Model the fold of this input.
Amino acid sequence: MASFRTVLNSSVIIHPPGFYIVGFESFPFVSVYFIFLAFVYVFSVLFNCLLIYTVAVNHSLHTPKFLAITNLAVIDLVLNTCTVPSMIKIFLIKDNFVPFDLCFMQMFVYYAFVTLESYALTILAYDRLIAICFPFRQNSVNTVRTMGCIISITWCLAAGVTGFSTIIMTRLSFCNSVRVFSYFCDYAPVFRLACNDYSLQWSTASFSSILILGVPFVFIFLTYVSILVTVFKMKSLDRRVKALATCVEHIIVVAIFYIPLFVIFTIGFYARVVEPEKRVLSLSLASCMPPCINPIVYSLKTKEIKIRALAMFRKTKVNAKI
Done:
């Protein structure tokens, strides 16, 4: 096999032409699963595009909350596009080879947008915190400009952290196996193939996991503690119900994103009983399903979006008849 070699600190770094994605090689009923993924991807694209379009064309929805929801929809769209088409390609044309540079590009995009997904849910928690705990200061504190700045900061942070994590992968030498047991060019399965020291990459992955998942989840948890304290201080039962009702869709998407990941990693870390095939299947589902479910939840549970989407649909139907 031909390889690209560079000299770094008097040691030879071997970069192979690419990697082979083998996560589903021994998986039974793989054709059924990939057909299911294809439907999931189509639904994800349609619903996220519908959500983005609905918010974009209705000026009454140009508020901080719906800017944050649109941000989540854009992230979901890119996140699924990063992995699902390549998985379907492997199934259709039986080509599981990914060139070296493209592998690292996919790794960067995937983890950047997983980071953004986690931060987007945190931003939506912040929006609910301001709306419920500080209702009289909401219009001055949580403006469209402020929300835009917060979203921009998260994008820069995600790009910076993921960019550093990906760049240091190029310091690894791959002189043995190039078979990645995952459903894409996953960070840990790739660096474990290296034949030189990957302790820096391991430490970076551990720190990034805390920064990407741990810190946002703690913030969201503390946010809802504050919201519950504020809600139960309200004298009117009707106000309590209305305040909590505005949080339902956010709680659902948070649960869909975090619970599967925490369960998979907790079982794998402590019990170490998760079979590799089941881990790949579980992680792929945990990664692919939220971008499909999120826009459906926000479309059905958010009154403003549902009303505008139905109005647009009726208008389109009337125009078609004319």
Residues 1-10 have pLDDT under 50 and may be disordered. The longest strand covers residues 4-8. The two ends are 64 Å apart (CA to CA).
